[in-house]
Structures are given as structure tokens and as C-alpha cells.
Amino acid sequence: MGFEELLDEVGGFGFFQLRNVALLALPRVLLPLHFLLPIFLSAVPAHHCALPGTPDNFSHQDAWLEARLPREPDGTFSSCLRFAHLRTLPNTTLGREAQSPGELEGEPSTVPCSQGWEYDRSELSSTIVTEWDLVCERRGLNRVASTFFFLGVLVGAVVFGYLSDRWLTLHNPFAGLGGAVYCWWLTWVPESARWLLTQGRVEEAQRYLLHCARLNGRPVGEDSLSQEALNRVSTGEQVVPRPSYLDLFRTPQIRHISLCCMVVWFAVNFSYYGLSLDSSGLRLNVYQTQLLFGAVELPSKLMVCLLVRRVGRRLTQAGTLLGAALTFGIRSLVSSEASSWSTALVVMGKGFSEAAFTTVYLFTSELYPTVLRPTGMGLTALVGRLGGSLAPLAVLLDGVWLSLPKLVYGGIALLAACTALLLPETRQAQLPETIQDVERKRLAPIHSGICVIFKALSRTLFLNEF
């Protein structure tokens, strides 16, 4: 008897499994809130150079600033420069200060902010930007802070994933609040019976399986799940070698799937977080922007549910990435003054990016065989987090060319769309169980395609001889 037969014995997928899915979904709902924290922690409020002698009650503040701050091409006051000397304004009283005799004719010279910045705190009272002045020539440090946040997520996933599999489940005697919460959570979410059998913990696995059968309405006696039967299953599970990350690159088809999925996961995270973390130019505050982004995610997921069943996983993945790439490209051509068009394109791009993110989880899990599925998902998710870590840094490319970040995001998404087309379709296909299943199923079409190519080349060469 194998473990699959044990699951059938206790009722298959029933109330027990549905309850566990609901319990595990609760922390999943909170997880995106943490991933999007840099949007608020690293927000850059409107700012300009700190100017000494600012009047407390001055009715003509814009005129006062006009004499001291240059304007950007879009008409706003400069955030990083001020005039070296006061600029004379016609028919305007600037207080007791007079124009410096050192000012030359023509356009006044400008200098960087030397006394810090003044920030608009009406929307956000404090961020890491306002605390440490991470603006202008130091704005790169703000992006680096977001990168470190995602690198921390990456390292934490690797370290704590390993600990939860190798150590935490074997030693639960934690002290303090963390241990209390962990033991309380285990009372609701049971340990994996299959994992317990692989570790030789037969009695615990038997207890969980009996509990599963009772909740599924399939009460079975201990004879049906006897220790002898479970010992045989445990022995069979333990002799199966534990897969490693090297197994993802040993055979041709698995290697092909792994490399393509790594590119797709990198691009999905890179474009998604690049768009989510940089919403400049929308002329909306940070709360309005996130409300708009959140509103478009639900229809995007519903669209994915429809498309993966009608057109398949591969075309859905490629199409959503292509849509995201096009929105990035068109945004680079739209004038900054067309705020309504820019907002519409950003919302569309967010919808396509969210759809691509939703699809990649389903598609990748169906590509890998059962024996390599957790390992493959772990590796591709790791590469995806690397893409999310690098996404904030790409914004700094606007110092080279204003539209370059959008072209980089769009170009990588376009590359991934083409890469997704190289993957096999999994719609209505039986999920592979072993590596051999993947190799046998995919090698035959490739061999036939190579034969067709060689025949066409030989025919062309033969005709050219005459």
C-alpha cells in the first residue's frame, strides 16, 4: 500500500483538507501587506530645499518661493536645487531681503540644497526618506533600502524553510511568546502525515490519519490503519531518495523547464514590484494609488481563472506578460502631462502583472513531476524573489534616460513572454509523477521536430545543387 491509497482510505480531499486550506489561507492574506510595506515606509513626499528666514505668516508663499526656487519643466518647484541669489520678481514684495548684487544678468545660477529639505507632511508624517533625507543625490539609498527588504525576505525564506523542515518540527520546546504561539498554531494545523512517515514517526502519522478520517466522515478502525501497514508505507517512503536542486538540471527536459521557469519567475516579480513600488507621475496620493491597484487585482485573478481553462496555461502566461510589457512601452511614449492616460496604462499594467503572477504559480506546479515539485517551486520562487529585490534599483536608471526604467521593465517582461512559449502546455494533461514521465512525454515531439528540420534542410541543400 502506498501513501495515495492511505489518502483514499481516509476520505481523500474532504472537510479535513478544506479546513486546513482555510487555516493556511489566513496568513497568506496578510503576507502581501508585508511585501508592500516599502511603498509606505519609503514613500517620497513633496519636498524642496530648506530656506532660512521663512516667514511664519506669509500670504504670498508661492511668490516668496518663486524668488528662491527654480521650476521644473512641468511647472513644479525644483526638489533639489535653489537659486544661488534671490531672483527679482516684478511688482512683488519679497520681505526685507534685497537682491544680491552678485546676481548676473540672464538666468540665475542654481546650487544644490545645502541646508536640508522641507517636506510636505500632510499625507505621511514620517518615512525613512524624511528621517534620513534620502532624496536628490541620496535617493539611491532609498531604493537600496527596498532592495535590502526583499533580500531579507529571500534569506528568511531559505533559512526558515530549512529550519521548519529539519529542526523546528523535531524540537518544539521553545520558550517565550513565540513558542506559545507556535504550539497553539500546531493544534489547529496538523503536521503532514506523509512527512511524518518519511521521518519514521508512525504513531503520530496514525493519529493524524485517524483524525482526518473522522472529520471526512469516513471513520475507520485502527486495523485499517494498523502500525504494520503504516510501517510498510514509512519504509517505502524513506527509501525514496530526497530530491536535490541538482536534480532540476540533470536531465534535458527538466533542465529546459527549470531554466525557462527561472526566467519567467524573475520577470514576473521584477515587473510586478517595479510597477507596484514606483507609481510616480500618477498625480494621486499613495493611498489612492494602492486602493486603485487593489481594486484591479480581483478582476485580474478572475480573468486568469477563465483564460487558463479556455486558452491554456502557456498562452495565458505569455499573453499576460506581453500585456505588461506593452503597457510599460506605451507609458514611455506618453507625455507626463497626459495624467489620465498614464493612470489608465498603469492600472492596466498592474492588472496584467497580477494576472501573470497568479498564472505562474499554477503553471510551474503543473510542469514539474511530483517528486520534484516542491524543489522546483522553491528554486523558481527563490529566483523570483531575486527579481523583486532588483526591481527597486532599476528606477535609478532614469538618471541616464527618463524612460529607461520603463523600457527595462517592459523588455524583461517581453523576454519572459517569449520564454513562456517554449514551455509545454499542461491544460487537460495528466500531471507527471516521476522524472521519467516528463522525459518520455516531451522527448518524442522534440525528436520529431528535429527530424522535420533536418528533412527540410536536406531538401533545400539537394535542390540547391541543381
Please count the helical segments.
17
Cα-based radius of gyration, to the nearest Å = 30 Å
Q: Main beta sheet, described?
A: 2 strands, antiparallel
What's the overall geometry? elongated
Task: Walk me through what this model shows.
- This protein is mainly alpha-helical and 466 residues long.
- The chain is 62% helix and 3% strand.
- Strands 1-4 form a two-stranded antiparallel ribbon. A two-stranded antiparallel sheet has the order 2-3.
- Helix 12 runs antiparallel to helix 13 (313-333) and helix 12 (286-310) packs across helix 14.
- The longest helix has 30 residues, at 139-168.
- The protein is elongated.
In summary, what is this structure?
Helix content is 62%, strand content 3%. The chain has 466 residues and is mainly α.
